[in-house]
Amino acid sequence: MYGATIKIRRCNLFFGDYFSQVKLNRGETLKLDKPSCKSRHSSSILLGIVLLLSTWCLASCAPVLDQHYYDLKSNPDEALSYLNRRLSSDPFFTDAYLERGYLYFNARRYREAAADFERVASAKSDCRRCVISMNTMIGSCLLELGETEKARLHFEAVRKLNPEEAAGVAGLGLVALKEGKAAEAVEAFNEAIRLDPKESSYYGNRGLAYAMTHNNKKALADYNRALEMNPRFARCYANRGSLFLDEGRVIEAEKDFSRAVELDKMSAEYWNDRGYARHLHGRFEEALADYNHALELAPRMPRALGNRALLYLQTGRPKDAAREYEQVNILVPMDPINHFNRGVALLATEEYQAAIEEMNRAEELGVHLPDLYYNRGMALYYVGRAQEAVAELDRALVLKPNWPEAYAERGTAYILVCEPTKAVKDFRKAIALAPERTANYYFLAISLECAGRTEDAARAYESYAGMTIPPGDVSYVEDARRSAEKLRNHGATEGLPCLTCKGTN
To answer: What's the CA gap between 436 and 393, in Å, rounded?
Structure first.
């Protein structure tokens, strides 16, 4: 069959269903077309939250940490070991729980961090300032863990203790972002900025809320303001980089992601983000290195696995892509797009029945795209179910009526089901929509011959044989010349699929 346009998911930086179009022709590798690049923040917003703490008091705590601990803080592992030893000898050492909680938070060990902050809040329950600060930190940990309702309770507790506490308002804004309530989040961050206009994270998070509503101008202004206030705000660089990707500003996006990586080398998200920007820029080796680094930090990260699978598919490694997508489907079994992506990879490896099964699963989970019907139609064609292939391509063309590849594929299927007149019509339509695709002229000649129009077929073969075939296109020139000669001399060509039909129309 002649060239297929396979549409596969962009394998987005963050959660979301974004697509890029990829063309697959016989003898070609997959090439990335320009993708639809949308804000990643509509679904995932909470990695690397800046600490929203006001000054708080532990002056009455005893004992206190000595200078040796602060000398170790540049090495988090050693600092953590030191704190564990101190707590082993003194399990009521509140200051050590606090410092360990911060270390756990920075290491993204949010469950353990929340437990330590809970201990501090309990020990200092008579200190209103301490309770407010610890509730803020606990709420931030719970948001990172996806426990939105529990986080809300902690931020509401902060508001109850002090309605003028900006951190509590901002925390509720983060809850609203997590729930996709962008307008509510904007209002919350407006209030937080009114209460504390010097906190950079409030501007950064309001920018995030604006990005969710596709108000990129306001989002960019807030990101820029936040970065002017805090040039080491890694998450804000990543968020601005995502906005630049949304606007197709790939080079600027990569610069921001690189800055985020410099500031937080332990963030798998930032390595993945930069890898994706480099991927879009066609720098596949560098992109693969970044994806690999992200997966060293977070081996079960679906987005990085999906991005690496996409890169494998685009660089002629469909078996590797199918294997990666299988891992993604284990991690995110109910995401229909991942099943669809794996179906595309399996189609490229000629595992047609498995491709059909994956695409069936994608449809069950809610994918109703012309691309699914098209690709499943191709797979059905290759397993000899040509009539079902026609039905699938019919569905694709209802949703995408000016798709030349779909007309060409359906034309080929019509030949197999002994409807060459319909095949002729489809190939003529494909040629009208994409006259530069030379192979369709050859298949038009075949369909004319199958329809019994010998003279028209001979002329069509000769016309195709005289064409200049673009580099990369499959050439049927010698076949066309032989077919034209046989038609002129004998009136029929041996070996055509339509010759197995009892009659043609």
So the answer is: 22
Kindly report the pTM of this predicted structure.
0.77
Give start and end residues of each alpha helix (H) in 349-453: 352-364, 370-382, 386-399, 404-416, 420-433, 439-450
Max Cα–Cα distance, the chain, nearest Å:
106
Closest among 108, 50, 102, 107 to 226, alpha carbons compared = 50
Instruction: Provide CATH 1.25.40.10 ranges for the chain.
Output: 46-275
Task: Tokens 């673009």: give the residue.
Answer: 470
Give strand pairing partners of 20.
Answer: 8
- Name all contacts of 57-65 with Cβ < 8 Å and 24+ positions apart: 57/127, 57/129, 57/130, 58/94, 58/95, 58/98, 58/124, 58/127, 58/130, 60/127, 61/94, 61/95, 61/124, 63/90, 63/93, 63/95, 64/95, 65/95, 65/96, 65/99
Domain 46-275 has CATH 1.25.40.10: yes
Q: Write out pLDDT tens, residues 14-71.
A: 222 222 222 222 222 222 233 333 334 333 333 333 344 433 444 444 446 777 777 7
